[in-house]
Amino acid sequence: MNEQMPEPIVVAGTNVTRGDVVAVARRHRVAALGVQARAEMERSASLIDGFVASETPVYGITTGFGSLANTVIPPERTGELQVALVRSHAAGMGAPVEAEVARATMFLRARSLSMARSGVRPQIVDAMLAILNAGITPLVREFGSLGASGDLAPLAHCAMALIGEGDVFDSDGNIVSSAVALSAAGLSPMTLRAKEGLALINGTDGILGMLIMALDDLTELSKVADITAAMTVEGLLGTDRPFAADLQALRPQIGQAVSASNIRRILANSPIVGSHRHGDGRVQDAYSLRCTPQVHGAARDTIDHAVLVAERELLSAIDNPMVLPDGRVESCGNFHGAPLGFVCDFLAIASSELCAIAERRTDRMLDVTRSHGLPPFLSPDAGVNSGMMIAHYTQAAMATENKRLAVPASVDSLPTSAMQEDHVSMAWSAARKLRLSVANLRRVLAVELVCASHAIDLRGPLLPSPATGAALGVVRTAVAGPGPDRWLSPDLLAAEALIASGAVVAAVNEAIGPLD
Hints:
By secondary structure, this protein is mainly alpha-helical.
């Protein structure tokens, strides 16, 4: 029996969710413009036609842009103006951004336009969604957005695909001209009318798309971090007592309570932890174990704050000028990316700290003076063998890199457009470095996962908890246990892939129920 295809995601302004964005960007879900949104867009577009017919000077409709805002454009050239705008603003340089970023950018622009506050015909959104539905991805380059006046160059590259110019990735991932890709998909280039070129490029959609996908990743990685931390506690013969609910309640930070609860559940019924609950001369564990809920929890609270900002942006109409239902066309600053840039930078700090504490936990497992009986570098035959020594070097390099990436981009600004645009957000840069930070976090946790798995094995015949045992079982499907030195990079890459696939969290969820 054939699996039924999911219904198209309906694009109707404020109804689009973070999950919808991820589905279109990463899983190529099909989307379509909603009926009511179509009607409202028709009404809004008719207002633009009226302005052009009356020759009323309206910014971006019958005038030039930026410092050319006082230059009036004749009615017969307003369409030409929009095409020229797209071409001139498609000035990106550098390597192409990831396909999922370009797809999210175009989808979110369609969402904003569907709110009927930009004066754009519904056929424009239809065409944007048809391109994505056909598996065509605009080729968007790394540099060109300052995060104010929108993601100008990235969105202009998306708009080039709409008018059949520039390059795209076809459904097979090959770089081809837009005209060729559209023709192969049975689609036709759009002819832009007044206001439409400006509306296509004046949004925070690339920044928002990257933020939403980072939140999707970080939500999963926060659970992975709790799992690897709990496995390290077992590997180091640590105690679960600091994670007790009554102790955590003395400091009612929400994320901290959630992380501590996860770790308690993961460590529940652990023979390793129970083996030294009494008679252990150590008074307390090191901060990197004992303070895990405090650090992981702070990261969780940061994620929750960023979710709030992202979801507000998903309710927002972003453009300039805005076409209001009463017929007014008003300039505004809604395209400024500061709200998104701030939280992207904040998330990079949280990601860096998750790396930092994971690296410290890993280091303790490898140091024979602090690992409470584990062999040096987790090698049963240390000396001839180096064990996990250089895996830690790799982890430390990435943790250190994430400290650099935690330096805020959003505190910077450089004036452009002859000083008309004299304060910019640099939010695109904040989002780009956040993506790098999240990827490094996944790898850092992969190293801890491999090391903690080895440490648990080396504690045999003592057994881990049901939850950590489930995680260990998944790891052992792709990574062999401790032994003589072997080519280590494939092990680490395999652990990274297991985390990325969701297999580690899924195994723990199956053992003890869903983690928070």
